Amino acid sequence: MTVLVNDPERFAQEAAEGFVAANRQYVNRCYGGVVRATKSAQPQTAVVIGGGSGHYPMFNGYVGPGLAHGAVMGNIFASPAASEVVSVCRAADQGRGVLLLFGNYAGDVLNFTEGAEQLHEEGIDVRLLPISDDIYSAPADKYLERRGIAGDLTVIKSACAAAAAGADLDEVERVAKEANERTRSIGVAFSGCTLPGAKEPLFEVPDGRMGVGLGIHGEPGIDETDMPTADGLAEMMVDALMKDRPASAKDAKPSILPMVNGLGSLKTEGLFVIYRKVASLLESKGVRIVDPQVGEFCTSFDMCGVSLTFFWLDDELEKLWGAPADSPAFKCGQLDTGSQVRVSQDEVSQKADGRPEVEEASEDSKASAKRLAAMMRTVADTIDAKADELGRIDSIAGDGDHGIGMKRGADAAADAAESEVEKEAGVSTTLRCAAQWWADKAGGTSGALWGAMLKGLAGKLSDQSQPSADDIKQGVSKACESIMAVGKAKVGDKTMVDAIVPFTKTLNDATGSFADAWEQAADAACKAADDTKSLLPRMGRAKTHGERDLGTPDPGAVSFSYIVRSLVPAFRSHPVD
Q1: Which of 112, 225, 222, 98 has its CA nearest to residue 163?
Q2: Closest by alpha carbon to 384, among 365, 369, 404?
Q3: Catalytically annotated residue among 55, 69, 217, 402
Q4: What pLDDT is attached to residue 542?
Q5: pTM for this prediction
Q6: Which of 374, 356, 499, 379 shows the shortest CA–CA distance to 429?
Q7: What is the pLDDT of residues 158-176, one digit of tens each?
Q8: Cα-flanking dihedrals φ and ψ of residue 7, to 5°?
Q9: CB count, 10 Å around CB of 44?
Q10: DSSP string, 323-362
Q11: Is 217 part of the annotated catalytic residue set?
């Protein structure tokens, strides 16, 4: 477990600060992550990578000449917020467009997509590629639906080498897609990882057993089997990867770059024992082995486990893999550093900066903003009290971080609302700011969804008047529309949508006072959240684990029901017209 901790809530931030302090020759800090501290004399297509923290050297360890131009760094096991994606891309962009590479997880897809849309509005050409190398998470004919694990590195290296050679955005994107199609990985775990400050691991594996098909965010294996010998494990993984041979890799004597990756606490000597057998098996199959990699390339804190990646090379990809690169965690060949130009921290900050300003508000709207801030604090206190329970629910078929993420988001939103009230902001501006900070600090899927919901609600409020009951109902309806548009989920998929849809319908259909309507709607949300126990997940990380999730309610639906229930007393004490 991670024992060197000050404040668990600040672990990711402090780790990032230490990383920058130790690698100033490579990176500058910017809001949301890091960017290169140097640039080439000629502008390049920028490749920006990213995801949650807790996986070093993925992602920030791969920023430097010949590799990525920037890395967006989310909180622990949580995707970065859209605003962080925007910030890093602004700082990394050299006028030739940006390719975003990230693991194929729901929260990352949501936030990177939203960030790309904002950048498009600013006139920056941005492309996205969710990396999908984990063979256990979806069948071969649906490889684009798979998760990204250690194979991210082969795609990143290929795309970045193309960018360094002067390729335009179309060409860099083509190379990345080809590398992704030719990368396959499988991972196993012998024990789960423990988050900083936590007393228990996110999952446990019985003695003598191993989880197969793990996720790098602490998700348990999709399958479980008896613990083999090192040779037996190598045979199992090699056999699985060879059977999943990419359609484009048709050579009779294929060229494969094998990567044995330690996930956190498995020592390198053990990885060499596994690779010994991997190499023997590949040679017996007539495979030409190219530049084998053994070490830590994508970790999951202290998880005891290993993954094996096969990168099926062609002439172009082999050349790109061997191209010079220099970063804190990966070096290749001899790089010409004479043409590199130093970029100042001030220059990076100016390119990346951007926050909304407070608009003039009416006294009625300011008074409503104060009540809103008090309600946001109630929400934060409620989630704080329920965080452990929400994490436990999420750990059944997810990564166990829902409670932590919701706590970070709700606390940040409450702090932001109180700060805006001190600036005499109106209720709409206050809620917009709270929405952005919720999304920024929570990260992950829940951060993106709550940010979108609160932003939708804020759009129906005004800085010039006090909200009416109809304003709030219209705002809730817009929030419901926003979450369904962003998350693409519908009722029955076992997500927060299963609670917010009946909540919204009941709120709009109820008669009597607004407080009565809100309480009836909260009751409907609570019942709907409990009813998700009987559903199979069709969206998000839990989808991979199928029937394991039966009998457990959806954590997003449960947290939503807790929040709307907690606000009943506020509407009772301050009636809405």
Answers
A1: 98
A2: 404
A3: 217
A4: 54
A5: 0.81
A6: 356
A7: 999 999 999 999 999 999 9
A8: -105, 120
A9: 22
A10: S-EE-SS-EES----TT-EE--HHHHHHHH---PPPPP--
A11: yes
